[in-house]
Amino acid sequence: MRSPIMWPLGWRFERAGYTVHYYNYRSTRFTIEEHTATFVTYLKQFSHTPMNLVGHSLGGILAVAATHHLPQLSGRIVALGSPLMGSRAGLALAAHPLFAPLGGKLGRTWELGLSRLAIPENWDCAMIAGTGSFGIGQIVTRHDSANDGDVAVSETQHPGLRAHLCLPTTHPGMLFNGVVAKNAINFIRHGVFCDK
By the 8 A CB rule, do 120 and 97 touch? Predict the structure, then answer.
């Protein structure tokens, strides 16, 4: 996605003492494999410094996928509302005549997520999922369990995660939520959530 949407969260990380770099990408224009290749090339310019990754939605999928191409590196990842196990809403968007452009070329990613991909041991990955239940995903599909309006909590529960936290926020709202930011920063710094 375009980086301005990440600025509020990035600002909180900068206030916590981190140097923040933003990665721009057209989320629906390319396949996950194409996105990953480009992102890995981008990340290699920072390979001489300690690296941690924070990604929202598809960005979290991209962050985890990239680690498989960076075996020489290690760090922590916080994914925010990322459907690592696939996305019913994403599949529905891709199949809907009105919303199909939003689904883009990510059909297989929406179907499987990274459910067949292990998270490398040299990366500690955590997830913050929302339970706000309000979003465009509610228009195209009906979630029968806790969700953030677009992504179901169950779609975020990859077995390779080191930590998983649910907070009462919507899918886009987590980017502006102070409690989400506080927990993301705490995991990057200490490897655990603070949940307050």
Answer: no
